Amino acid sequence: MRYRLMIFDWDGTLMDSVARIVGCMQAAGRDIGWGALGEDQVRDIIGLGLPEAIERLCPGIDPGRAEALRRRYAYHFVEGDVTPMPFYPGVVEGLARLRADDASRLAVATGKSRRGLDRIFHENDCGHWFHASRTADETRSKPHPRMLEELLAELDVAVEEAVMIGDTEYDLEMARALGMDRVAVTYGVHAPQRLAASRPVFSAEAFSELIDWLHA
Fold it and tell me: Between helices 169-178 and 146-155, what is the axis angle to 10°?
């Protein structure tokens, strides 16, 4: 294995949840009377913590309306929207290959809340796949590197033995700030050209391609 610790983003990297996130945020915007939120606008903020995403998505929004937007988004995501959220092709099999190496450690660094990530873990019976995880509401949101620092400390892994894998510049810039290797997956949210600006050590067009590279 190239690394002792492989840290994965969730939405747009492991799980194809982008359409649901976009639809739920657009519905929430309509609910509070904010107006139309474009698909590209919403896609751009995927990966950030929800407060930071709302601030960027709705400049100048007052705290009361921001909280209303957050609540309506949460409602739609958990109860009001049934858009499927499958794992991307190759994810289940690929993570199983990584877990077969006893020396390897797997972790998640996500813009989700702890409650949201734990719900996804439970619904998909996949929390045991990972040795640790960090969410945006229990530390600082991407692109600040604190969640990576905490994962390194918890798992006692040096930065040069770890890699961050994600589909947004927020994932890659978080790792870049620590001098950590970073890998881009180009099937998610941000365009390959945008990801390339963060100088990833590798770019994968499919999850199976990523797994083969990690095993090199």
Answer: 60
d(CA 69, CA 64): 9
Q: Which long-range contacts (CB under 8 A, 24 or more apart) does 116-125 make?
A: 116/77, 117/10, 119/78, 120/10, 120/15, 120/85, 124/87
Cis ω before 143 (30° cut-off from 0): yes
- What is the rounded CA–CA span in Å between residue 105 and residue 116? 22
Give the distance, in angstroms, between the CA of residue 138 and the centroid of all CA atoms in the same chain. Answer: 15
- Alpha-carbon radius of gyration of the chain: 17
The residue among 202, 203, 201 whose CA lies nearest residue 191 is 203
Tally the residues of the chain: 216
Which amino acid is located at 78 in the chain? V
The tens digit of pLDDT for each residue in 134-188 reads 999 999 999 999 999 999 999 999 999 999 999 999 999 999 999 999 999 999 9
Say how far apart CA 136 and CA 140 lie, in whole Å: 6
Is pTM beyond 0.70 here?
yes
Specify the amino acid at residue 38. Answer: G
Q: What are 5-34's pLDDT values in tens digits? A: 999 999 999 999 999 999 999 999 999 999
Q: Assign 101 to helix, strand or coil.
A: coil
Number of other residues whose CB lies within 10 A of the CB of residue 20: 18
